[in-house]
Write a structure and sequence with these properties.
Elements lengths: L1 H13 L2 E7 L11 E4 L8 E6 L8 E6 L2 E7 L6 E5 L10 E6 L2 E6 L2 E7 L7 H11 L5 H14 L6 H7 L3 H11 L10 E8 L9 E7 L3 E5 L6 E6 L4 E9 L3 E8 L3 E6 L7 E4 L4 E7 L2 E6 L3 E5 L5 E6 L4 E9 L4 E8 L3 E6 L2 E7 L4 E9 L2 E9 L4 E6 L7 H4 L18 H12 L1 H28 L13 E8 L4 E10 L9 E6 L5 E3 L3 E4 L7 E10 L8 E8 L7 E6 L4 H5 L1
Helix pairs in contact: 2-3
Length: about 575
């Protein structure tokens, strides 16, 4: 026992965190998107606002914690998708409002009392679906025919069916008639729901400035709401349903919305753009999204953490030791330090600055939500909730410093060490003076030698083309390319020619392939071929076998000619350097 207590004390002494509070029976079931820290009463003491999912979809509540105890709670009508705190206006006292996204609604609380309810605009219903229900209303079709027609619309139509039709299709046959009689007189409505939510500064970047709500919906739209009138200021459409949001900038100046969607991609939206400007394809489904300075960090379901630039260029990948449960940003503003906090399924929380692991926290249970910021009057507080409903509060020590060696970027430290360059010698100084005095003449000599070298290379190339000694044809009438591969150690070798027609759309026909070799050294089973019709773009292999007859360990060159039938001048020529036969040499 003494040894165990001493080891735990040493771990706590080496840790960068103070254990402030742990309540395994807090009954908090939530995610990182449903947690926020805010000064709700303007007294300088920050509270913890939690959208509690409750047990099995019941007893959903909006809870506010002060210190280690529950200060207040309000009943929610539906499961919360996200919680955000924001300033709606410049009125005194400057107390933020609490926005809770739930279903198709955003419930806004001012001073922890219901203030406003924003409803997402309804979507256009499918006209075919409306016609079918109109026929059912007038008793022109029976429920079974209605079911068949709705199933056909569901499979082919671009506009999805309404909730009423989907519920009808899920009914048993005996209950269909009662369902139709109950709902056929009501108009068809198609309503979307909120999947994620964040905030965007309106016109200033100050911490206490007015902010807009940014909402992602199930209909693959991103909406920006006015903070006072709650009207839609901007609407942007995505290729898929958004799952995570990260917002940067000011609405009136310039902003950038980064969205991780269910199709496994990240889309980047900018001001005055209705469609995404950049797209990042992830290796798996996203589990979290965090912006660190100007870079984007995404956690994926394949146990990886991936970093990208704002334009989608991949920077690095970190392979995690366990499945990723949640992630959030650690922003230590006093030191200008930012890192990504990752909650793992092995009861650990890892902290990364770029791809470098800087700290590991061991927890009593699997962490499902993380939040870092000012809580109470302490600036650097880490708040976590666990899978079993527990609440963990830790405080970063004032003396804690994340080691620079763990977070160093770019080249290694050894590269910054200055080399001991020797002093300039007399010979070096004389050579430098000579180059300065004769710079023009030296440059002219260099240019003359360079031009002479280019001329020699051009002449040799033209000679090779004119005599068909190159493995590539020079005429546009027969654009061919050939290369040869020799396989084996001897005395029998396998010789494979690869011939390709490089023209745009004209095949090559009536071509012959011939081999020229020393018959005293080699014997070929077949030294003459008639090539098939060469279709442009395809690679045609021609194989033959060469047997070495000499036992003296010597080799020679075999020449390959590609000719047109009826002509003596070859179109292509290749020289194959045969290897020494290991079999006969060993014998």
């Amino acid at each position: 026992m003494a040894a165990g207590s001493s080891s735990s004390e040493s771990n706590e002494a080496n840790s960068k965190w103070l254990d402030a509070h742990y309540d395994p029976m807090a009954n908090l079931y939530t995610f990182s998107s449903c947690i926020s820290l805010a000064d709700l009463h303007g007294d300088g003491e920050y509270k913890l606002v939690v959208g509690d999912l409750g047990m099995a979809g019941h007893t959903m509540r909006l809870k506010v914690y002060r210190g280690t105890g529950l200060a207040s709670e309000s009943t929610l009508l539906d499961l919360p998708a996200a919680v955000a705190t924001f300033l709606m206006d410049q009125n005194e006292p400057r107390t933020p409002a609490v926005a809770v996204a739930s279903g198709p609604f955003v419930y806004v609380y001012k001073n922890l009392r219901p203030y406003f309810k924003f409803t997402l605009p309804p979507l256009d219903a499918n006209p075919l679906e409306q016609d079918v229900w109109e026929q059912a209303k007038e008793d022109m079709i029976d429920p079974l025919t209605l079911k068949e027609m709705l199933e056909g619309i569901r499979d082919k139509a671009e506009i999805p069916l309404s909730v009423r039709s989907l519920r009808f299709l899920a009914q048993d046959v005996p209950a269909m008639e009662n369902f139709v009689n109950l709902h056929k007189g009501q108009p068809i409505k198609r309503q979307t729901v909120i999947t994620c939510m964040s905030t965007l500064k309106k016109n200033m970047a100050d911490e206490d400035s007015v902010s807009c709500l940014v909402i992602g919906t199930e209909s693959a739209d991103v909406l920006i709401l006015d903070p006072e009138a709650f009207t839609i200021l901007a609407k942007m459409t995505l290729p898929s349903v958004p799952a995570f949001l990260d917002v940067l900038g000011q609405f009136d100046v310039e902003y950038r919305v980064t969205v991780a969607c269910r199709d496994g991609s990240i889309y980047i939206l900018r001001r005055d753009s209705k469609r995404p400007k950049y797209c990042i394809e992830l290796s798996a489904q996203p589990v979290g999204l965090v912006r660190v300075h100007k870079n984007i960090v995404a956690g994926c379901s394949d146990e990886t953490l991936q970093g990208y630039t704002q334009k989608g260029k991949k920077l690095w990948t970190v392979y995690l030791p366990a499945a990723l449960m949640t992630m959030s940003l650690l922003d230590q503003k006093s030191r200008g330090f930012q890192a990504v906090m990752v909650g793992l399924a092995n009861q650990e929380v890892h902290m990364y600055r770029d791809k470098n692991l800087v700290d590991v926290i061991h927890t009593q249970d699997v962490v499902t939500s993380i939040c870092f910021g000012r809580y109470g009057r302490e600036d650097n507080t880490l708040i976590m909730t666990t899978k079993g409903g527990g609440l963990i509060i830790k405080i970063l020590k004032r003396t804690a410093v994340f080691e620079e060696k763990d977070t160093s970027l770019g080249p290694p430290v050894a590269q910054s060490i200055r080399l001991s360059v020797p002093k300039k010698t007399r010979l070096y100084v004389d050579q430098t003076l000579r180059e300065r005095e004769n710079a023009v003449a030296m440059h002219r000599v260099f240019q003359m030698d360079l031009y002479r070298l280019r001329l020699m290379a051009a002449r040799a190339y033209v000679k090779a083309l004119e005599s068909s000694l190159a493995p590539v044809t020079s005429t546009l009438q027969e654009p061919l390319k050939m290369n040869a591969v020799v396989q084996g150690i001897g005395p029998t070798f396998k010789l494979t020619l690869h011939i390709q027609n490089t023209s745009a759309g004209r095949p090559s026909i009536n071509l012959l392939v011939s081999f020229l070799y020393d018959q005293g050294l080699y014997a070929m089973k077949r030294a003459f071929f008639k090539a098939p019709m060469l279709v442009p773009g395809l690679n045609y292999p021609i194989e033959t076998f060469v047997e070495c007859l000499s036992d003296k360990g010597i080799s020679d060159v075999i020449k390959v000619f590609v000719l047109r039938e009826g002509q003596s001048m070859p179109l292509l020529t290749a020289h194959i350097n045969m290897p020494v036969s290991e079999g006969l040499a060993a014998a």
